[in-house]
């Protein structure tokens, strides 16, 4: 079953002759539980695509359906709530709150949403990511790889069905990157989460179920997932 369907996505920044045509008609389907990587040269439109798939911006034209729901038919407030409840985001910058310990960072978005964290689930996520012994530390007392694992735990703790990651290993060395992506793969399987991840790193991309290649605002390869491929 497809969790996400994007059709005819066009994004222009600015207007008139100086407009940048960042996406030029993107059609994409992502299956439930899939782990997909988006690759392409700098400026090809990867981040623009990810932002549109996650409801962080609005397209100039086109639609994004998540579980059949047309996310851009919602107003800004509805979209913010939908995003918070259904989508986890992981960025290159970890964006942890320096004065909060690891546990409080992980549950912060849930508490900001007025909910109580499912402490059993949070413990399970923390354990899977090797964070159990670090829960009382401050972010400043952690390595880059550990901080990114906290950011991943934070993205997963609210049990989103869909996780979007923009260069999640951009600040990490290659061994740590492979480890973090390995963990992302494990968590996506274990918690049944669909993952779309941008990466510059071809080795990292090969760890995904599918590689979506984007060039000059268009998808050149990997638009549709082939069920015959093993996953
Ligand atoms: N807010 C913006 N205003 C104007 N132009 C933008 C904006 N954001 C992106 N662009 C332009 O849109 C095009 C696609 O940018 P995007 O960030 O999606 O590419 P990318 O593939 O993610 O690049 P990188 O790998 O360098 O992050 C580029 O030409 C970029 O300069």
From TrEMBL:
GO CC annotation, single: membrane protein complex
Domain of life from the UniProt record: Bacteria
Domain ABC transporter: 4-231
Matches recorded under InterPro entries: AAA+_ATPase (IPR003593), ABC_transporter-like_ATP-bd (IPR003439), ABC_transporter-like_CS (IPR017871), MacB-like_ATP-bd (IPR017911), P-loop_NTPase (IPR027417)
MF-aspect GO terms: ATP binding; ATP hydrolysis activity; transmembrane transporter activity
CDD domains linked: ABC_MJ0796_LolCDE_FtsE (cd03255)
Keywords: ATP-binding, Nucleotide-binding, Transport
Keyword Lipoprotein: no
Gene3D superfamilies on file: P-loop containing nucleotide triphosphate hydrolases
Assigned protein family: Belongs to the ABC transporter superfamily.
Listed name of the protein: ABC transporter ATP-binding protein
């Amino acid at each position: 079953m497809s969790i996400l369907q994007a059709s005819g996505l066009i994004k222009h920044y600015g207007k008139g002759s100086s407009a940048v045509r960042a996406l030029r008609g993107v059609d994409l389907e992502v299956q439930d539980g899939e782990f997909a990587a988006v690759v392409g040269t700098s400026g090809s439109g990867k981040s623009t695509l990810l932002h549109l798939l996650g409801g962080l911006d609005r397209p100039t034209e086109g639609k994004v359906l998540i579980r059949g729901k047309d996310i851009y038919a919602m107003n800004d407030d509805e979209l913010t709530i939908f995003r918070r409840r259904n989508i986890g985001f992981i960025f290159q910058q970890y964006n942890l709150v320096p004065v909060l310990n690891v546990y409080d960072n992980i549950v912060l978005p849930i508490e900001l949403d007025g909910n109580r964290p499912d402490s059993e689930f949070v413990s399970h996520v923390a354990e899977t990511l090797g964070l159990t012994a670090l829960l009382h530390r401050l972010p400043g007392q952690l390595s880059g790889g550990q901080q990114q694992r906290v950011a991943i735990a934070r993205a997963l703790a609210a049990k989103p069905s869909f996780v979007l990651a923009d260069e999640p290993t951009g600040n990490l060395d290659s061994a740590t990157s492979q480890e973090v992506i390995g963990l992302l793969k494990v968590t996506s399987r274990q918690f049944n989460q669909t993952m779309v991840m941008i990466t510059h790193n071809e080795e990292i991309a090969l760890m995904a179920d599918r590689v979506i290649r984007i060039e000059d605002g268009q998808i050149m390869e990997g638009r549709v997932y082939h069920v015959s491929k093993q996953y």
